[in-house]
Amino acid sequence: MTTPTQLTPDQRNDFLNSPSLPPPPGVEPNFENPPNSNNVAQSLIPILLTLVTLALLLRSYARFFILKMIAVDDILIIIGYGTYIVYLYDVYHVVNSVGLFVHQWNATVRQVSDAQHILQFGATFYIITLAIVKVSILLQWIRIFAPKGTRGVFYWCCQILLWINLLVDLSADVATNLLCVPFERIWDKTVPGVCYNGRPLNLAIGIFNFISDVLLLLLPQKVIWSLHMSWKRRIGIAITFATGLVAIVAAGFRLGVTVGYVHAPDWLYQVSGLSIGCITEMSAIILVYCLPGVPRAFSETSMLRKMTTSLRTWVQSRTRTRDTDTHAHLIESCGQAERLDTHESGGVYKDHLMHSDSV
Description:
It is a single chain. The chain is mainly α. It is built from eleven helices and two strands.
């Protein structure tokens, strides 16, 4: 039997234009306009990107221009934001080329190869992004809750988790890019070489990231809630905690998809859910880092404070106007009802008199 590496140029071209997966019985491949869910990415990515960008800008403004301080994690988070953008671009490329949640029998071998190529780089940037952002979070917590000169339990737990994340993510990144030799055989099976099954590795990465996200969220809770702080501060921490829960849910969703992805032949469809989970997890993790610094940008900046006050005043005025309009409408409705009742009662009374006279 001829393998893809032994094809002639014409046979190779026919192979690349054939369905990437045999369709189920009775199903015709649809290469022109396959059913997809591109709207999921086209709706979700702009929303998450806007939230992450605003949070990072406000947090950076507070650190660089208000506090006039720069630490290692301030630089790392900007690098992590850059790798996050690269991953979003990779997913958008797949959306525009083959589509999201497209069954593999509705795509040619060439299209799936292109998706595998771009998502291979995406997987690399996903691992790098999580590694950088988690290190940034742990460095931030060490700076806040374990000042210089203190080496308590919290400090050492952060250090251990930091280095475990770095070592595991570095190993995973290297292993992900050594699945095939030569490297391009990962996405182009017409290239001679050897490959290993990378899906168990993907599952292991998903399990590690889920456990890491849970530990990252739980680690500072005892320290945070033992501090004496105002309710406003507690609410801010609760919001950050809720964002961390979103990251855990996204990591859990990604892990669940990965379990099915390990055994499913329809790689193209399964990897779409995997990509959405990765985007949500990365976005939530970046927000966990940025949100604690956002309030200072509003409280210490007159322009932002005026904008916040104006927005609050506008909302309150709109609420009062709506309440006034509703109250006036109710009074008018009640007046109309009373007049109607009087009119109808008078009419009935007149009819009764006329009827009585006729009797």
